[in-house]
Amino acid sequence: MTLAEWCVFGALLLYLSTIASIKWIRFRRFDNSRPRDPAFYEDALAQRALGAHQNGIETFPFFAFAVLLAEFRDSPQRLIDELAALFLIVRIAYVLTYLGNRPTLRSILWSIGLAINLGIFFMPMLKRFLPV
User: Fold this and answer.
1) Is 34 helix (H, G, I), strand (E, B) or coil?
2) Helical (H) or strand (E) element with 36
3) How far, in Å, are 69, 77, 117, 121 from residue 66 at the CA level?
4) pTM of the model
5) Residue 65: closest CA among 2, 128, 10, 118
6) What is the pLDDT of residue 103?
7) Domains of the chain
8) Rounded Cα–Cα distance for residues 22 and 27 (Å)
9) Where are the transmembrane segments (predicted)?
């Protein structure tokens, strides 16, 4: 497996661990028979963890598709790997800023992540201009 493919797996684990961690921390208050109970998410930190988790679900498909598209279209693998690793680092920072209640920085990181994703996605179209 390539580094980029491991980063796809890492992005999956990131959005799962974001919500799992808050459920684990507050496990005595979490009722698994009612996993979407709004009362569990009344706390500000739990709300932010849920928001980060949902955003991870929203961004994951595009990232996974962009990586696979770039790889299947024979784009430079080293560049795909570097951008995928950078995307994962930005996403980790995004989750931390979401949990830490830093909305402006969070929005900046989200935009950077989107730009990286677009770069991976359009890499096959631009590969003749990229270094091998």
Assistant:
1) coil
2) none
3) 5, 13, 7, 4
4) 0.91
5) 118
6) 96
7) 3-22+41-127 (1.20.120.550)
8) 8
9) 6-25, 83-101, 107-126
